[in-house]
Write a structure and sequence with these properties.
The chain has about 475 residues and is of the alpha+beta class. It has 17 helices and 25 strands. It has two domains: about 1-250, Glutamine Phosphoribosylpyrophosphate, subunit 1, domain 1, CATH 3.60.20; about 280-450, 3-Layer(aba) Sandwich (Rossmann fold), CATH 3.40.50.
């Protein structure tokens, strides 16, 4: 079974954590924070909380498959007592969509207990897991997150503090990650040294907040303070906040797809406003060449900002031509072509009066397999569109991602199999153009990027792909 969104790339997950003064329950803020991050993962959700004034080992965890609103009832939120907590929304890549892979991962060990949430993917997880299995610590179904938890526990029994154990593990693991680790007395946040995965720091009153996106901090009434630096570890206790930058300083490589598609429009990531970055991508597309057109439109939701930028640069009217059904939820589609088409029609419908007889420039953030775009163009033709010129606000997807983005194999990537002319014919467009790699500078300025899924240059890669991917 496949989801309607199967023709989009998926982020692995989102994380959210709060450390508040004693006596303050944080579960409701985590619930609403996760709801604001729901776009990052719809397969599972979970929350762990702890009362720092209570006995050691009093971590409470509730998690399960489904949306945040499906996993947690009001009674569940009331039962998750504690002034410190972490939460997670998941879209599965590594480890699959089994319910047991939902996060947080909570474990007891000889010195106490911990709970952990993780966004990203470790490129050397298998190597670490083999060592853990040799020690009798891990098992064959272990996910990346369990690998992290087992490794932290292994170091914790030999160290003086949880943050010391986390720092030692961070020196070993490789890949993209944003992690929150909760012990009965502390909340630790750490971001990978390349900054591949986003992590923001905020504050609400006397409470500190960590989130995959700044928009979720504001959604719970908090104030965004800054991004966690690549390689930085931040520990929050009753005594306040402490930052460790001993792992900072490596060349950073921020994921460009956060700005193209993953993040919410109203988020600011590493100093770049997502909406503005998408606007600039649309402007760059327009500067590359203009077809004869009557209006510019975007595919909801992430294509809309780029479409606004294109229209402004091209001096062509921008129009909303789709109605999106926001209440369809996770509409799983059946194997037949007719049922796939029905799923797209359930999600999007065309405003016929807006498109009849019009030559349209249609902007979307990406083409992965091409199936959804071909159905959207067919819907526009049926509504009377005179022409559909497709412009994509990202380059051609050609390579896999090893850091937690669900990129299909090359044989499923339409741009890896067909020329632009063949793709254009395949999807039924009148013309087709993609963003050029050089135009990323228009979007994010001098911010160092990871664009490996477009150019094959991996900032961190496992040894078995090192010589195949154009790594430095």
């Amino acid at each position: 079974m496949q989801n309607y969104e199967d023709d989009k790339l998926h982020e692995e997950c989102g994380v959210f954590g709060v450390y508040a003064p004693e006596g303050v329950n944080v579960s409701s803020d985590i619930y609403y924070g996760l709801t604001a991050l729901q776009h990052r993962g719809q397969e599972a959700a979970g929350i762990s909380t702890c009362d720092t004034a209570g006995p050691l080992g009093n971590i409470i965890t509730k998690k399960g498959p489904g949306l945040v609103s499906e996993v947690f009832s009001p009674a569940d939120i009331d039962s998750l007592k504690g002034n410190v907590g972490i939460g997670h929304v998941r879209y599965s890549t590594t480890g699959g969509s089994r319910p047991e892979n939902a996060q947080p991962i909570s474990m007891n060990y000889i010195k106490g207990s911990l709970s952990l949430v993780h966004n990203g993917n470790l490129v050397n997880a298998e190597e670490i897991k083999k060592e853990q299995m040799y020690r009798g610590q891990a098992h064959y179904t272990t996910s990346d997150t369990e690998v992290l938890a087992y490794e932290i526990i292994s170091h914790r029994v030999r160290t003086e503090s949880i943050e010391e154990a986390v720092l030692q593990v961070a020196k070993v693991i490789r890949g993209g990650y944003a992690c929150l680790i909760m012990s009965p007395r502390k909340l630790v946040a750490i971001r990978d040294p390349q900054g591949l995965k986003p992590l923001a720091l905020g504050k609400k009153g006397e409470a500190y907040i960590f989130s995959s996106e700044s928009a979720a901090i504001r959604a719970v009434g908090g104030e965004f303070i800054r991004d966690v630096k690549p390689g930085e570890m931040i520990t929050v206790t009753k005594d306040g906040i402490k930052c460790d930058e001993s792992l900072c300083g490596e060349p950073s490589a921020h994921c460009i797809f956060e700005y193209i598609y993953f993040a919410r429009n109203d988020s600011v990531i590493d100093g770049i406003e997502v909406h503005e970055a998408r606007m600039q991508a649309g402007r760059a597309l327009a500067r590359a060449g203009l077809p004869e057109a009557d209006l510019v439109a975007g595919v909801p939701d992430s294509g809309l900002s780029a479409a606004e930028g294109y229209a402004a640069e091209a001096h062509i009217p921008f129009a909303h031509i789709f109605h999106k059904n926001s209440y369809i939820g996770r509409s799983f589609i059946k194997p037949t072509d007719e049922e796939r088409k029905t799923a797209v029609h359930m999600k999007l419908s065309v405003l016929k009066s807006a498109v009849a007889g019009k030559r349209i420039v249609l902007i979307d953030d990406s083409i992965v397999r091409g199936t959804t775009m071909s159905q959207i163009i067919e819907m526009l033709r049926e509504a009377g569109a005179a022409a559909v010129h497709v412009r994509i606000s990202s380059p051609h997807f050609l390579y896999p991602c090893y850091y937690g983005t669900d990129v299909p194999s090359a044989k499923q990537l339409i741009a890896a199999r067909l020329s632009d002319e063949e793709i254009c014919k395949n999807i039924g467009a009148d013309s087709l153009a993609f963003l050029d790699l050089k135009d990323f500078r228009s979007m994010v300025g001098d911010l160092p990027l990871c664009s490996a899924c477009f150019d094959g240059k991996y900032p961190v890669a496992p040894t078995d792909v090192q010589n195949k991917s154009g790594c430095d």
